[in-house]
Amino acid sequence: MNDLTTTFGLAGAGGAPEALDPGQLCRRCDPTTLPFETVAELGAPTGILGQDRAVEAISLAIEMRRKGYNLFVYGPAGTGRHSRVTELVRAHATTEPVPSDWCYVNNFADPARPKALRLPPGRAVGLRDAMNRLVQDLRVALPAAFQREEYRARRDALDQELKARHEQAFGELQQRAEKKGLALLRTPVGLAVAPVRNGEVIPPEVFKRLPEAEREAIRADIAETEQELTALMRKTPEWEQEHREALRRLNRETTASAVGHLIGAIRAGYADLPEVLAYLDEVERDLQENANDFLMAEEAGNQLPFKIPAELSGFRRYQVNALVDHASSRGAPVVCEDNPTHQRLVGRIEHIARFGTLVTDFNLLVAGALHAANGGYLILDAEKVLRAPFGWDTLKRALHSGEIRIQSLEQLLSVATTVSLDPEPIPLDVKVILIGPPLLYHLLAEFDAEFQQLFKIAAEFDDRVDRNDDNIVEFARLLGAIVRERKLRPPDRGAVARLVDYVSRLASDSEKLATRVREVVELLEEADHRAGRNGRDIVSAEEVQATVEARIRRADRLYQRLQEEIRRKTIRIETSGERIGQVNGLSVHTFGGFAFGLPTRITARVRLGEGQVIDIEREVRLGGPVHSKGILILTGFLAGRYGSQRPLALTASLVFEQSYGAVDGDSASAAELFALLSALAEIPIAQSLAVTGSVDQLGNIQAIGGVNEKIEGFFDTCRNAGLTGKEGVLIPAANVKHLMLRDDVVEAAREGKFRIYPVSTVDQGIELLTGIPAGAPDLAGNYPDGTVNHRIATRLARFEAKTLARRARERTARRGIDHA
Fold first, then answer.
1. What is the reported pTM?
2. Long-range CB pairs of 159-166, under 8 A, 24+ apart, other chains included
């Protein structure tokens, strides 16, 4: 084969493309075009870089206050979804009114179902503190009220009244009985009526000797007196009930006089809230009804050798559980919940140990994220919600019902066998914002019927924006905002220019800027550290470049190990000479977020057959579906170009040599086709060249991904073997705009030691690889002599002739057998 320099010139004259100019291999940002010295001179960003569509959707979701207009924000990780959305929401939330406070109080009619109280913002804590002071005052005021002389005198009077009533009634009955010669006697079983004579009870034997008429008269008197006694005994409980009622009235009056002014002071502070006034009325009634019970409990507690904790006191029922307090809030709340489990979303019911058992009451209700965000915004990570136990179902249930119901998991799953609290649900008015990857959004939209009813607005974050002057300046403003927020040294214009190149490389496109804010922040932090170590007040391009190189070095151990094995010939890659049916393909590998390219030797063999192209990778189940599709496409190309007039009488096999893992993608289909064409034409391919690109059935070379990594991977392999000036890579012409190559690759191209060739068709590529014109068919479909296509067509014709001859012999042999 001729010298490649001469060959490329001939190929170019025949239609093969020239190598790219070094200036086309990487688009560098010129620092002198930037209108600032450092980013510290720039103001705040005017928006979110490149996310106008997303911002519009977010703004609409924030403004819509109708049910179901919650927001799902999706996009690639690292694009600043969380931070930017949170900033937008917080900025809007400050313009909205502060929502209501919420309290839970005792339900005196049914303590198992605590009541929820809505209060104006900032007043829940005041009510709680006022009720706590009331409880403390009650501990002193109630005992003091019941120990006053006035109370004791009135109570003694009531007791004496009851005693006098008893004595008078029984005295009168005793007198009537004595007139009849009877007496009331106390026995172990109660009062009894017995006849007496001379002050003594008549013994039974004496009573029997009395005349019959006298005995009958005595019996009649006894029966009459017993009836009166029975009637009197029936009245006794009524008198005692009246006494207790009078005592309760006295206690209520005493309690009212002791606590009335205390509760009245609280009423005065909440006179504008009817619900609070109704609650205070219930508190006062309950105090009046149960004051004596509290006094007895307090007295019993005072006799114990230890003090009963406040949480076990009966006065606990009058406390207020300030569940949500907005006393210090400015605008609507914005809550970010990092662990959105069932209990963290809707709250929980806690318990305390009391005499060996676990008990609970309304004071042990704890708010969840939905309570805290009620009236505002709740921002959640969608993946965490779906992974959290019952998180997704709980969130949907709350949004559907429009209320927050605190339930334990046992209640939720209907497995609880003990009595627990069932608090009154709180109305829910919240805007939920889920943030997650695109795949999760589409899966939920496809398989969860409720999803789009609850999340009617989606905002997609783009991972790239156009690289133009306006966006570069806006990117610099973003850098300035990051620097100010994180208190870093400001980058100068040279550092900004290098960062612009860096994000273009992240986007794998010289005409775009990647919006992967997280990586930019991390790079700035490392560059700031280097600048500080170098004693500089600003970050220069040198610190940025050193940081980029250091980040690559930390991640490229495996890549360097594989390049070492290529250099040591453990992995066979040829970068010089020529081979028939062998070409250097290029592939991209990603480990731990670091992507790198490596050359792969692709070989092809052909023989007589029935028009089949065997993909060895697919046969052993290492080839993925996209790779298999690429093989079928190149098979279609062969059939369309060379089999339109005659059948393809060949069998070919293709394989990635020294490949022991799964292979997928169609970016090697062009290289596989070139290897196959070389094997058919029996023309060698220059091993100093590598190929990447996919091919269609019409012979067009199509764009692929990872073009920069692939070129750099082959460049490193060639440099390790020694550059001779013949090395280069064939890439799809459609990928030229994606080139953002390393400086050393660009410099080698400038020195003529390495070349990048853009190809658009299979014919252009085969000319470059072989140095022989591909050849175009004439009107009869024949190719010019000496061209690649002519040699392929000639060999296929020989294959066909041999196949026809073999079939003729087989038919003759069969006829001879049939004749015999």
1. 0.80
2. 159/243, 161/243, 162/239, 162/240, 162/243, 165/239, 166/236, 166/239
